Amino acid sequence: MSDRLSRPDLEEADALLSELFDEVQKWEGTLAGGRKLGIGAEAVDSLRQSKVSFGNPRDRLIHLTEETFKNSGTELNDIYKQQMQTQFDFYYMTLTVDLRPERAAKFWRLTCELDFSPKGTKEPIVQSLFPTQKWRSVMSGGVGIDVGLNGNLDWNVGVDSADFDKTESLPGELKANMGSKDDLKAFLAVPDYRYELGHPEILTNGQGNSTCY
Q1: Are 122 and 198 found together in one domain?
Q2: For 19-44, b where at least 16 C-beta lie within 10 A, e where not — what string?
Q3: What is the residue-level pLDDT of the chain in tens, covering all 213 positions?
Q4: Is 1 within the bounds of a domain?
Q5: Could you tell me if 104 and 40 lie in one domain?
Q6: E-strand spans in the chain?
Q7: Domain span at residue 176?
């Protein structure tokens, strides 16, 4: 994975694509009687029409409380327990991504930065993110997993017993956070998570900040 990219100027990118489209279309020409895109113009137009959109973050926004973890049989870390009682509200948020490439275009990387507000004394703090590079090996193996927050607000993974032989080559620190789905004692946030298309390259950071990447 390459280093972090600078934030793109989307308006400038749209303008450049429009200029490129006009130039390519002019050189490829059109057939008499109507507008017909050549191969190059079709590729540029497909890139212009491709869209990436995000789902509503309120869709699965869950207020995490002591009771939430207690009901799942999970013992919450004392520090987080105290913060929930006197200092902070904790939430779990899922953000879905809808990739819509047109016929002559394809996505090969998605990079996004989320900046949570307000700033100042009430500034939100990102505690943990999923997926992370840590779980890349599990996901690329095509193993169906359940993902849950444990009492330290870290991620545990539950795997079907039949798939345990597929995880033998994983590093020891991953296996320490992995068990049977039936024995997964955590707040279940992402059931039946499976990555099947291609090889995932994942880079995430932002824990302890109001901005995550």
Answers
A1: yes
A2: eebeebbeeeeeeeeeeebeebbbbb
A3: 445 556 666 677 777 777 777 777 777 765 444 556 677 777 778 777 788 888 898 888 999 999 989 888 888 999 999 999 999 999 999 888 888 888 877 878 888 888 999 998 889 999 998 877 777 666 665 566 778 888 889 887 777 666 656 656 555 556 555 666 666 777 776 766 665 555 567 788 899 999 998
A4: no
A5: no
A6: 51-54, 62-64, 90-92, 97-100, 114-115, 145-149, 155-159, 178-180, 187-193, 211-212
A7: 50-212
